[in-house]
Amino acid sequence: MHIPNTPATHFPTPPATGPRMLWARLADAATWLTPHSLLALVNRVAIAGIFWLSARTKVEGWFTISDSAYTLFRDEYKLPVLPPELAAQMATVAEHLFPVLLVLGLFTRLSALALLGMTLTIQLFVYPDAWPTHLSWAGLMLYLVGRGAGNVSLDRALGIR
Q: Among residues 36, 63, 142, 153, which is most buried (max CB within 10 A)?
């Protein structure tokens, strides 16, 4: 952050000319076309979609956790510390709740942080070779944790940072 009337702490950039000026104008246009509120909304919906679809594979009907979900946690996921039944219930609730909150833009930072924790758990204990996928999810969630929901959100309407 630059404070007016204070010396700059970096080397001054010469005025852009020629191709550099064109590139600078394109960069300015890209910045203008992708405001924080748009990026946050897209990130919220993208992450919500990923986790919501995963949640729906774990239930029958509206919200009965399926036997196959319990089997998955017992036989494939094998998380340390938590019993598989509890882990299945916690994951299913979280994968339904936090995506809804993200789409609404309500408690966005907390919701993204919770799903980031789930992603870290999945990465460390379940699918360690899936780091490219998990890293891409983490990038979306870190943006939301760090910057919040944006203007198109209940967080904004309620004055929640």
A: 153
**pLDDT tens digits, 49-107:** 999 999 999 999 999 999 999 999 999 998 989 999 999 999 999 999 999 999 999 99
Question: What string of DSSP letters covers the chain?
Answer: -PPTTS--SSPPPPPP-HHHHHHHHHHHHHHHHS-HHHHHHHHHHHHHHHHHHHHHTTEETTTEE-HHHHHIIIIII--SSS-HHHHHHHHHHHHHHHHHHHHHTSSHHHHHHHHHHHHHHIIIII-GGGHHHHHHHHHHHHHHHHH-S-SSSHHHHHT--
Tens of pLDDT, residue by residue over 40-49, are 999 999 999 9
Please choose, from the candidates 152, 52, 148, the residue with its C-alpha nearest in 3D space to the C-alpha of residue 98.
52
Residues 126-151: tens digit of each pLDDT? 999 999 999 999 999 999 999 999 99
CA atoms within 13 Å, Cβ hemisphere of 146: 9
The answer to whether the CB of 81 falls within 8 A of the CB of 121 is no
